[in-house]
What we know:
Layout: H1 2-14, H2 17-31, H3 40-69, H4 72-85, E1 97-103, H5 108-128, E2 131-139, E3 145-153, H6 157-161, E4 166-173, E5 182-193, E6 208-213, E7 229-234, E8 239-243, H7 249-280, E9 291-296, E10 302-305, E11 311-312, H8 315-319, H9 324-334
Parallel strand pairs: 4-9
Antiparallel strand pairs: 1-3, 1-5, 2-3, 4-5, 6-7, 7-8, 9-10, 10-11
Helix pairs in contact: 1-3, 1-4, 2-3, 3-4
Amino acid sequence: MEDLKERIEKIKQKLNLEGLRQQVKEIEALSAQPEFWQDQQKATEEMKRLAFFQKQIEKIEELEALLTQGKIAELEKKLQELELTTFLGGKYDPLPAIFSIHAGQGGTEAMDWAQMLKRMYMRFFEKKGWDYELIEETPGEEAGIKSVTFKIDAPYAYGYLKHEAGTHRLVRQSPFNADRLRQTSFALVEVLPQLRSEDEIEINEDDLEWEFFRSSSQGGQNVQKVSTAVRLRHKPTGIVVTSQSQRYQEQNRKLALALLQAKLWSLRQQQTKEEEEKLKGGRTKASWGTQIRSYVLHPYKMVKDLRTGWESSNPQAILDGELDDFIEAEIRQLA
């Protein structure tokens, strides 16, 4: 009991319980002002932060109640869940995320694998109760997808997901040839924070090249007749982003700018890392990134994280979105 009590006190300190209560008061006071609601997008973001802070306070209070009641098993489980949050102390960890999947080399096989990953992560987002929105998707020629990008509007989504970034490898019998040969496919996961106004990267309007086109449509009465989709190119870096999920061009413009800012932030982080590696005498791989996880469906069944060593002999459960054990191991070991 003393050990549990001590762990609860540590959580209260690390999560700054009094600070959370103060932020709740501040947001509640702001939301009482009429001008607060003039910027609907910012107001929505603040109300999500308020709900998250309130939930954290409720969880801490629940721990103390369970301790008083002596419900040790339930307390231990909830304590472990909340302790995980204390590992997410990075500057950008509390932010919502931009999450992308890109098929690797390998044509249809790789595009089908990217589609499988899309399904896996969507199920994971739903299990977590996160709000997410598909911003852009490029279908494959025969099957699967070339790429897909989601906007995940949940506090700490970036902190939880950032270690999922990297190359994911699939080994299976190919469903695309008659001989059912063993096939290895790759896909790249990219995770970026949705930057706040104070974190925004400055962008020169002269460096931008805008293109407007019609969004993908199923046809019929709702066929897209106006060019609302946006493709944005940053001329100095060559970075290209696309947004076509919104009904109005201006909304897609804002989303495209947010995507570009996140990618420029990522580029800046990578350049800083490369400079540090040079100073240390290290070398930066000019490749897709580190292979982080293998999903083997044939000749045996196993999913293994190559960084943490965590593995599962039930690939189907993992591909159905049961990723909590893998992500928890990442957060605890790679934070």
